[in-house]
Amino acid sequence: MDFLSNLVKDTENKEGKPQGSSESSGLMGKLNGALGGGADGEKKEDVLDKAVDIFQERFMKAGAQDNESAIEQAKDEQISDAIRSGFKSVTGRDIPVDDK
Q1: Largest interatomic CA distance in the chain
Q2: Helix, strand or coil for residue 25?
Q3: Which 8-state DSSP code applies to residue 66?
Q4: 98, 94, 81: which is closest to 4 by C-alpha?
């Protein structure tokens, strides 16, 4: 799992975070932020969620994953939960990455 941690750190260091976007302002931006989306929601992701983001961005060419909506972050959380469940069913152990 050190590979995932290092990959996430490398990506965070290389990518510039947006200073402000039109999506983060206004009523919809505040609603999205209240539901856990946006840049603040990205800060609360665990390493496995960030690895899912990196996979979507680099291999699936889904675009930037650094300011996702609350719905996109919920989808990523479901994907990471499915990965955790599959890992546990195959190995019998919990994945060694804490879930936030």
Answers
A1: 47
A2: coil
A3: S
A4: 98
Q: Kindly tell me if the per-residue pLDDT of 85 is higher than 80.
A: yes
Query: What are the tens digits of pLDDT across the range 16-68?
Result: 444 444 455 677 776 666 666 666 666 778 888 888 888 988 888 887 777 77
Cα–Cα distances in angstroms (integers) from residue 55 to residues 7, 18, 23, 44, in the given order: 11, 20, 23, 18
Nearest to 47 by CA among 4, 79, 3, 88: 4
Altogether, the residues listed in the chain come to a count of 100
Q: Per the structure block, which two tokens stand in for 65?
A: 């994953």
What is the spatial distance between Cα 27 and Cα 23, in angstroms, rounded to a whole number?
Answer: 9
Cα–Cα dist 79/49, whole Å: 8
| Prediction pTM value | 0.62
